[in-house]
Amino acid sequence: MSNDVMIVEGCSTRVRREGQGEPLLLLHGFEGRDWPEELIERLASRYQLIIPDHPGFGASDDPKWLRSIDDLAYFYLSLLEQMSMPSVRVLGHSLGGWVAAEMAIRQPRTISSMVLVAPFGLRLPGVLTGDVFFWTREERITSLFHDSALAAARINNSSTKEELEQQLKNNYTAARLGWEPRFFNPTLERWVQRIACATGLVWGDDDKVVPPSYVDVWRQKLPHAQPFLVKDCGHLVHIEKPKELAEIAFRALGES
Amino acid sequence: MEVYAFNLMPYRHLDFEAARQHRALWTVLPNTLYDPERGADLYQEYIDQMVYAASLGFDGVCVNEHHQTAYGLMPAPNLIASILIDRTRGTNVKIPVIGRALPLVNNPLNIAEEFALLDNLSKGRLIAGFVRGIGCEYHATGVNPAFSHERFHEAHDLIVRAWTEDGPFSFEGKHFNFRYTNTWPRPYQRPRPDIWIPSQGSGETITWAAEPSRKYPFIITFSPIASVLKYHMQYRQQAETYGYAANGSQLGWAVPIYVAETDEIARKEAKAHIEMLFNTFLKVPIEMLFPPGYTSAASLAANLAGRQGMSVQDQTIDSLIEKGTFVVGSADTVVRQIKEAQAVSGFEKLIMMYQFGTLPDDLARKNLQLFAEDVMPQLGRAG
């Protein structure tokens, strides 16, 4: 394994690398990079993983040009060009799933297949996503999980000063990208059908952040996409059901 | 010293027991708890109080803006200002609107126009306050708090240019773009109405407000006296850094004040109402009060670590008095406290929040009257 720092579009970007084979880009959600090792190990057994901290998140810089989801999509297209990777698989969770979709409508050939786990980005009128910026810390954590024991453990685990600063940094960037319209891009809504690659749509059946009914909006626009509903699972599928998510990824992303 | 009377216009008839079932008196407090008949009477009561204050010799009567809350019933303060202007016609009573929340609008030229209109209606008695709005209002309006500072500065620049430059001209910004900026009417005052910056205190804002081309009066609102004076001194220091000595009229203190016949009576009469203001009207979860980007991450981290914000801890009248967040007592007590504070920073603007929380009409009027008769004459008035 290695932890590289890449300079992309002037932004110092933390990128962890794992495994061998064809590349799989992992795009994390609005809470920051929180892939469990169990998932990383499973995926790394088949793919060469590229695991960045988004600009504005974690150990990456917070560049001035980062103002909307478009900027993040163009950033990753630049990153892949810089890595000389004309075509990759992508697994994106939540905000990261939204970024993957934004990349795919701009440069469809860059993504050979992708898995979107509870992605933001589209709107289902009448069904609101959870108000992650309005919830208290306890409400937010409770709403992220299906398993209340996991939620309770995180609630009771008080953060260090450094962790708290990291969480704030992540949350500030998430708000900049998704406050209004709330985690939704009307342009993506108009152009999402440009996504032609094999696409898996994964949802926890108890997702309180992006309700599982959102899968219908995506399927309506992408009839070829394959839905996967994970039982007894909340928004953080990678944390609550890493083994299941890895199996789904193998099926949906195709052999390496 | 200049002395102004200020009323937030809280919905004091609220069913507080029902209201406490909700997370705050902001944003999600169901508007079914507002009774239009009682509310309409309340507007009349508050407006009459302020006209009364104007007749008692206050230099001005102030209004401000809040949204989706029982804390303050003026989502459009200029409408109230317009009434006050007409009911004080022929006087020299100032009408400070402290202020309009610039980042919350998508067309700041509307604010430039409305203020210019009020300045004409009042023949130059308008004072224009500019604020960013409270954190809850970013939830209420949908405006992205991450761009709050940017939008504030850009809207400010646009409004000041619209008032002071000959139109039409074009304006190109990040958030606001206008091919034609050409405000009709122009403000009555030349070159423009006075601008005040009410704030709970921030180094950035002081640096900006004290800048020599601005020299905007900086009004610290509802804070412990120690921080009020700290920020006043910081402003003075900043002015010196810029190479000038700040005038006392550039420094203001906005504070709830209650005067009665004796200290004991004053405390007794004010207690329930001031505690209602701080413990119920202002009790807001930190996620609502400080949405991401509204403040710097560093100051939010400090706030989270301490959880000492005024909104999270229950306060008693005694703790509020001790911190100097609330000035209450006989006229002599109140005069002494104001003069002690003034001796430190030399501020020359005092904004008296004479109505607070559930304070009823008779006590609010008595407060105004005793303040005007027994406190004001002792404050070294230019008048």
Top keywords for this entry?
heterodimer; A: 256 residues; alpha/beta; eight-stranded mixed beta sheet; 10 helices; 39% helix; B: 383 residues; two-stranded antiparallel sheet; 14 helices; 43% helix; 15% strand
Description:
The complex is a heterodimer of chains A (256) and B (383). Chain A has 256 residues and is of the alpha/beta class. Chain A is 39% helix and 20% strand. The longest helix of chain A is centred in the middle third of the chain and has 18 residues, at 161-178. Chain A starts with a strand and ends with a helix. Chain B is α/β, with parallel strands linked by helices. Chain B is built from 14 helices and eleven strands. The mean pLDDT of chain B is 96. The chains are: A alpha/beta (256), B alpha/beta (383). Chains A and B meet through helix 6 of A and helix 10 and helix 11 of B.
Strand order, largest beta sheet of chain A: 1-2-4-3-5-6-7-8
Largest sheet of chain A: 8 strands, mixed
Spans of chain A of 5+ residues with little confidence (pLDDT < 50)?
A: none
Using only C-alpha atoms, the radius of gyration of chain A works out to 17 Å
Beta-strand percent range of chain A: 15-25%
CA(first)-CA(last) distance of chain B: 9 Å
- Tell me the helix content of chain B: 40-55%
What is the number of E strands of chain A?
A: 8
Q: Alpha-carbon distance between the termini of chain A?
A: 19 Å
Mean of all residue-level pLDDT scores of chain B:
96
Largest interface: A-B, 17 and 20 residues
Strand content of chain B: 5-15%
- Rg of chain B over CA atoms, rounded to whole Å, is 20 Å
> So how many helices of chain A?
10
Describe the largest sheet of chain B: 9 strands, parallel
Number of helices of chain B: 14
Oligomer: heterodimer
Sheet/helix structural class of chain A: alpha/beta
Order of helices and strands of chain B: EHHEHEHEHHEEEHEHEHHHHEHEH
Mean pLDDT of chain A: 97
Q: Can you write the helix and strand succession of chain A as a string?
A: EEEHEHEHEHHHHEHEHH
